[in-house]
Write a structure and sequence with these properties.
Largest sheet: 5 strands, parallel
Shape: elongated
Structural class: alpha/beta
Helix content: 40-55%
Strand content: 5-15%
Radius of gyration: 24 Å
Number of domains: 3
Number of helices: 15
CATH class of the largest domain: Mainly Alpha
Order of helices and strands: EHEHEHEHEHHHHHHHHHHEEEEHEE
Distance between the termini: 58 Å
Number of strands: 11
């Protein structure tokens, strides 16, 4: 049996030079790396998924060690983040650790035994999170996607809405370095599952962002609650159930971040579906900070215009995003706006095309960096 792979230990900033000598004595468990600047830290992360512990401390005024650590987390999920601070920085460091869920704060002067114990504890925590992440990636996400794909068979419009919301949720989670991003991702996939029981006219209104009557709104909220209850008995999915149960609550620090992300993503998509440009829709959300977390809205709305073009059916490729409904010549919906083109969807399109003609060309957009090969004909503001 081969020797176990070493874990990466990343030391960031000119003020952590003192740790380098200690780090070189760690034996077989770690491969130490040192980065004296933000640029070097980013370069060290390229192609690396084995960073178990990252340590950053103050030093240069133009480098925020907390921001650097969050970048590490975004690139290497599950990493244990350690912040080193002087006495005068300790209060702010502790507050930052609580806000961003950092693993530990160490205060200078560093004690060797405390330093080594922190690294061992950080590596153990990383191993537990990595095992859990593998289970989530290999089991939970595929299962949630399979369940949500039931919508594509019975209501392709709602399924496309689910995918649009999921894209927004993933973008926000990635940008804020959300360590439990899987919770928001799975919640987005399952949030509309209960909608299968909705009357067709109510589901159609939801998909196109139309106003619902009080009775229809109550019905929609009831089936969303049903989605949460359907998984509440599974202990491992308890955070997802809580995110679904609480995502309609007004934004506050006590509301799970996954809930706040899902609320903003869902309602932003509803405004867009009603015809509002993304910039206008995002502004409407920001105008209600008591309902929507402004920081979350900014994470979803990146301020960049969408590249839009029209292509023939034969020109559709995996990764492109529909910016209008794809229908047959008779008006039957094949895939709704926002649906990401996949191989399975292309198979369905070809099947439909053999039976009846499809309306073309169809409009696609470069949302989520898709459509990079398409030639833009205009920009969506």
């Amino acid at each position: 049996m081969g020797a176990p792979s070493k874990l990466g230990l990343l030391l960031i900033g000119d003020s952590v030079r003192e740790l380098w000598t200690l780090a070189k004595d760690l034996g077989s468990r770690f491969t130490p790396l040192i980065a004296l600047s933000a640029a070097e830290a980013r370069e060290a992360l390229v192609g690396r998924r084995d960073i178990a512990v990252a340590v950053a401390g103050g030093g240069r005024a133009d480098v925020d060690p907390v921001e650097l650590l969050l970048e590490v987390r975004a690139a290497s999920p599950g990493v244990s983040l350690v912040l080193v601070a002087d006495d005068r920085e300790l209060s702010a460091a502790v507050a930052a650790a609580a806000k961003h869920d950092l693993f530990r704060v160490l205060c200078r002067p560093l004690d060797r035994e405390q330093w080594l114990a922190t690294l061992d504890a950080g590596a153990d925590a990383y191993a537990r999170r990595d095992e859990r992440r593998r289970w989530i990636d290999d089991t939970v996400r595929p299962l949630a996607l399979s369940l949500s794909e039931a919508l594509s068979l019975s209501n392709p419009g709602l399924f496309s809405r689910t995918l649009r919301v999921r894209q927004k949720v993933q973008q926000a989670s990635r940008r804020c370095g959300f360590e439990d991003a899987w919770v928001a991702d799975v919640a987005a996939l399952l949030s509309d599952l209960g909608m299968l029981s909705l009357p067709a006219d109510v589901a159609e209104k939801l998909n196109h962002g139309e106003l619902l009557s009080a009775a229809d709104q109550a019905l929609a909220e009831e089936v969303r609650e049903r989605s949460a209850k359907s998984i509440a008995h599974i202990p491992e999915l308890a955070p997802v159930a809580e995110a679904l149960r609480r995502y309609r609550e007004p934004a506050s620090p006590s509301v799970p971040l996954a809930s706040r992300i899902l609320r903003a993503a869902t309602d932003l998509d509803a405004y867009e579906a009603s015809g509002l440009p993304t910039r206008v829709a995002a502004a409407k959300l920001r105008a209600r900070p008591q309902i929507y977390d402004p920081e979350v809205v900014s994470l979803i709305d990146d301020g960049r215009p969408l590249v839009v073009t029209k292509v023939k059916i034969a020109g559709l490729k995996p990764g492109m995003v529909l910016s209008e409904d794809l229908r047959t010549a008779s008006g039957m919906l094949v895939a709704a706006r926002g649906h990401v083109i996949s191989e399975s969807l292309l198979d369905r399109v070809r099947s439909f095309g053999k039976k009846q003609p499809l309306r073309q060309p169809v409009e696609i957009c470069a949302s989520a960096d898709a459509c990079t090969e398409a030639q833009p004909s205009r920009q969506a503001s």
